[in-house]
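Second attempt. The first submission of MarR family transcriptional regulator had a stray character pasted in from the spreadsheet, which I only caught after the job came back as garbage. Lesson logged: always re-copy from the clean sequence file. Corrected sequence (147 aa) follows.
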Amino acid sequence: MRVNRTISILYRLGHMYFDRDLEPYQIGSGQQFFLLTIGKNPGISLYELAQHGCYDKGTTTRAVRKLEEEGFIQRVIDTRDKRYHQLYITEKAERLIPVIEQSLEDWNAIITDGLDEKQQESLIQLTDQLAINASKAVMKDRKRDKE
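This time the job returned cleanly.
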């Protein structure tokens, strides 16, 4: 089916766009989601961060480590449970977040060029439904695997 192919192409082209656009700031397309999510959810844990974007723990850990090495985030040991680390953005990241948000807006304008407001809203609803369907299928498979 063409839906998978088209979404895959958009995903890869988006990564290429963000890698180029954010290169001067020492952040890649793979870290931007994590940085924005931590910025919007101060104190979020690695586990919550992974769940928020449907990422596996390894990918999340690598992205957080890279952001930490570049000085964009800091980990704070949770006072209630020493096993968990809470994640916070640094001042350096605070200055970068508007740049990332602008890059996202620019990319959105590029890929929705020629679509009117109604078409854009329809597109959002349709892709949201695709994500819901995919999530249900994956959760169903995980549940079956645990049985």
